[in-house]
Amino acid sequence: MSEKIKLLFRHRSMEMGGVEKVMLSILNNLDKEKFEMTVCLNINQGELRDEFPDHVRKVSLTHGREDFSGNSIIRKIQLIRRRLKLKRIQKNPAIADQILGEVYDVEIGMTYGDFAAVLHSTNKKSKKIGWFHSEINLPKLQPLVPGILKHFPEFDQMVYCSQNIRDMMHQYYPDLAYPPEAVIINAIPVEEIKRKAEEQMGEFPSGPVFISIGRLHSRKGYHKLIEAHTRLIREGIHHSVVVIGDGEELHNLTAQITAHKVEGTFILAGNKMNPYPYVKHADYFILPSESEAWPLVIAEALLLQKPIIATRTGDIPEMVKDGITGCLINYDPDEMYESMKSFLTDPELTEQIRENLEDIEEQFDNRKIFNDIEKMILNLVKK
Fold first, then answer.
1. What is d(CA 171, CA 78) in angstroms, rounded to the nearest whole number?
2. Distance between CA atoms of 235 and 206, rounded to whole angstroms?
3. CATH number of the domain bearing residue 53
4. pLDDT tens digits for range 128-141
5. Nearest to 340 by CA among 250, 225, 245, 254
6. Which carries the bigger pLDDT value, residue 162 or residue 111?
7. Are residues 62 and 197 in the same domain?
8. Do 119 and 222 belong to one domain?
9. Is 337 exposed, middle or buried (0-12, 13-18, 19+ CB in 10 A)?
10. Do 256 and 296 belong together in one domain?
11. Residue 263 C-alpha from the chain's centroid
12. Which DSSP category does 305 fall into?
């Protein structure tokens, strides 16, 4: 095929998150001699909105909060206008296609929230790919499940970021008319992470530090982590917890931290464009999530050779070997407490884990991941 294949990636916005990092890694690593790539954002918003490589065209349908007025009244008007415009585009997908002004060979929805935009495209000849990152049995996902199930059979290809996510779909919905499927795990930019981990960072607590990275969402389990941390502090076991991330639970978590009087030791540090120096300088990594798929942050923490405490969810048990490269627990504050206490009071345990992590880099084969994505797209276009 002499002409480049035109790819369109659809996504809501570019707040700091795992899916956004995955999309950026794909855009940076697909062969630009084979593919002409465009990203269409519903909202030009988020810390990563200017991180696209130069060879990728970015189109946004509406402005982000970064572009809004500082005047609260004008800002409210701008938000209302944006909401109305997005509703118009949702009802009439031709508006987005006119703004894009191109016809694409392949259109890709990076999460289930992007599925409708891809499938309702006025370009009926393009191949449609869906990327699915979620555990379908997650309670808070249930209101959206009927819509997700309706969209699945309409795709030409479905990609799962973990085998567990695919298996769970077939376990719960064995009779669904699935499109062709592929399991492609998230790539981890090894050299970039190691390089960025050497950069300067802001203030950091002294003494033993657990670090976590994630959106401040109820399913991330930070409210339970505060309980475990408070219990340890009250027992006189000194340590700090630093959480990098932002989200809708910020107010609730801040109130909980204040109520437990742990403001000095449980630190909500907000988003960081480069979180890796913080991970490098921490003693341990902890991920207390109720639900995950193949969390990129676990791979990043492994690469930076941090002993890990993480819940047994998604593909985490495939990533972290219990008792060897970390400690696997259930989604329970008592188990969080016990595992944190073990890390803080048993130096032989954590020293052995660190030794086991010395050759961990060998388990990441990024080139194979990007080759699999390229092969999938090329085969789909040929059909």
1. 44
2. 19
3. 3.40.50.2000
4. 999 999 989 988 89
5. 225
6. 111
7. no
8. no
9. buried
10. yes
11. 27
12. T
Range of 207's domain? Answer: 191-363
Distance (Å, rounded) from C-alpha 78 to C-alpha 83? 9
Cβ neighbors of 225 (< 8 A, separation 6 or more) are 212, 241, 243, 286, 288, 333, 336
The pLDDT score that the predictor gives to residue 2 is 56
Same domain, 197 and 184: no
Look at the chain and count its residues. Answer: 383
Cα separation, 253 vs 218, whole angstroms: 9
- How far apart (Å, rounded) are the C-alpha atoms in residues 348 and 366? 33
Question: Are 205 and 345 part of one and the same domain?
Answer: yes
The number of distinct structural domains making up the chain is: 2
Q: Are 232 and 241 in contact (CB under 8 A)?
A: no
> Is there a contact between 134 and 168 (Cβ–Cβ < 8 Å)?
no
Note whether 173 and 250 are same-domain residues. Answer: no
**Alpha-carbon radius of gyration of the chain:** 22
Mean pLDDT, residues 319-323: 95
Gap between the Cα atoms of 85 and 282, Å rounded? 44
Q: Are residues 248 and 310 in the same domain?
A: yes
- pLDDT tens track for 259-288: 999 999 999 999 999 999 999 999 999 999
Q: What is the mean pLDDT of residues 225-246?
A: 98
Measured in whole angstroms, the distance separating CA 368 from the mean position of its chain's CA atoms is 21
Other Cβ atoms less than 10 A from the Cβ of 11: the count is: 22
pTM: predicted TM-score of the whole model, two decimal places: 0.79
How far is residue 284's CA from residue 211's CA, in Å, rounded to a whole number?
6
Nearest to 32 by CA among 11, 50, 7: 7
Q: Say if residue 161 is in the same domain as residue 271.
A: no
Q: Pick the closest to residue 241 from 212, 277, 198, 202 (CA basis).
A: 212
